[in-house]
UniProtKB/TrEMBL annotation:
Gene3D superfamilies: lambda repressor-like DNA-binding domains. This is HTH cro/C1-type domain-containing protein. Residues 64-97 form the HTH cro/C1-type domain. The lineage of its organism: Bacteria, Bacillati, Actinomycetota, Actinomycetes, Catenulisporales. Coiled coil: none annotated.
Length: 156
């Protein structure tokens, strides 16, 4: 069996593991993968993330198998350096991976969504609008998601 076949098998097994049974870091990393996949309109795998991190570093600094192991909870104590690399790739602060950070009281899906400047600007523009205006914007967003073939909402 090739290494890619092994990784593919590992990824299939990872999808079968419910997120609530995973260690905290694995839950957070899995969430980032799911959100990135939804944004990209295709499944993002550990290989894509490893390639991106390695390209940014200009050298091979992480293996896709290690990322998979962290995502599935098989490695449950990655170094801060690894977490910082993953955080940079996904556009979140490294503290995203630590449960006792006060900023994590905001739902993780919202934290990740707000790393997109366009989403953040849309949210800020809606502050102070009437209930009927907010409802109208919500309907436009829902209709847009439907037209683009996206799920009704990105958060669980």
């Amino acid at each position: 069996m090739t290494e890619k076949g092994t990784v593919r098998d590992m990824a299939a097994n990872a999808e079968d593991t419910p997120a609530k049974e995973l260690p905290f870091v694995a839950q957070r990393l899995d969430l980032l993968f799911r959100i990135a996949s939804e944004k990209a309109g295709r499944k993002i795998g550990a290989g894509t993330v490893a390639d991106g991190i390695n390209a940014t570093a200009g050298e091979k600094v992480i293996e896709q198998s290690y990322i998979w192991q962290v995502r599935t909870g098989r490695k449950d104590n990655p170094s801060y350096k690894v977490l910082a690399q993953l955080a940079e790739y996904f556009g979140v602060h490294p503290a995203f991976f630590f449960p006792d950070d006060a900023r994590l009281t905001v739902a993780p899906e919202i934290q990740v969504a707000l790393t997109d400047e366009r989403v953040r600007n849309l949210a800020l523009l809606s502050v102070g609008l009437s209930d009927s205006s907010i409802e109208a914007i919500t309907m436009i967003a829902k209709n847009s998601r439907q037209l683009e073939g996206l799920p009704k909402h990105s958060a669980k």
